[in-house]
Amino acid sequence: MKRPTIRDVAEKAGVSVATTNRVLSGAESVSAKTREKVREAAEAIGFYGLGAIAARNNAARPRYRFGVILLQPHRPFYQLVARALAEAARAQEAFDIELRIEHLEDLSPQNTAERALALASECDAVCVTTAVHPVVTKAIEEIRARGIPVFALISQLAATGQIHYIGLDHWKVGRTAAWAFHHICKSPGKIALLVGNPRFRNQEMNETGFRSYFREHARDFTLLEPLSTFESSAVAEEMTERVLSDHPDLAGLYVAGGGISGVLAALHTTGRAGTLVVVGYELMDNVRSALLDGALTLSISHPLAQLAGEAITGMISAVASKEANASYTKIVPFNLYTRENV
Asked: Does pLDDT of 164 surpass 80?
């Protein structure tokens, strides 16, 4: 067999010989899509210059550096989010994405603001999961004033949409959780609510939607005042033990913020696992086990691959377009898990 030629590559790719030559030479005038078609054609027919084409394509890909701030490194959910973001960045064939992910152990507003400013000084765009606080807001405004796009991930940073947001519609999340209690509890009763930190806007909207459903559809239920876990499993365990002790007739428990591990531990140590309706969040290993053994009734979860994909493509679009007033907010659907579908 004769060795494949440039003309053979061009025919296989459905482009001209001139275009194929431009790909081989690394000319900037060829689109990323066409470059990839030529590379795939060269690979399919065993073209001797495949290595050169791949190298030219990689060199021609736009390079972006994105910074991401997530919550504590020991929390399984944020480990899963980081993994999904890394996979989404690697999947961008047309772009060379360098991803810098920082997990903050210290969640104070001052530390969050400092880390966001430092990351923004080295990145083309930043994506932040944080509670709303004036110190953080000031830092975000400073970053945006430099022309660096800022995205809020999982929890919104602005109610009016000035800051791009990638995440769930948490008002709907809260109403869906309320619907579950309304239809699963055998009779109306007391429902306890655990939140992480009321400064997280997603949790605030979660509670608002939760209460609005009961006001509209299920007034016979009694909603207890929310207890804050401060995003700590130890505090969540203590709060859960307290509410179970103070309200032995509790019908349901809604875990709307951080600390699900502590909640599950308290349910098991008090012997209350499986005796009341419990709605939690995400699908870490301990949540999956709790669904299977009946300690947890329902879990409302982020679709992590889709969430991460929207975050990466949103940052690419924001950096590439330079449109000052463009919105890259994306609301992703949430998943519902019970013991029957995990």
From this structure: yes
C-alpha 67/C-alpha 122 separation (Å) is 8
Q: Is the pLDDT of residue 99 over 80?
A: yes
The mean predicted confidence, pLDDT, of the chain is 93
Quick: pLDDT tens for 70-86.
999 999 999 999 999 99
81 CB-near residues (< 8 Å, 6+ apart): 70, 129, 153, 154, 302, 304, 307, 308
> C-alpha angle with apex 126: 120 to 131, nearest 5 degrees?
105
Regarding beta strands 298-301 and 227-228, do their DSSP bridges make them parallel or antiparallel, or are they unpaired? unpaired
**Do β-strands 298-301 and 335-337 pair in parallel, antiparallel, or remain unpaired?**
antiparallel
Note whether 166 and 330 are within 8 A (CB): yes
Q: Quick check: 310 and 330 in contact, CB under 8 A?
A: yes
- Contact assessment for residue 95 and residue 64, using Cβ atoms and an 8 Å cutoff: yes
Alpha-carbon span 140 to 145, nearest angstrom:
9
Q: Which two tokens stand for residue 171?
A: 């008002």
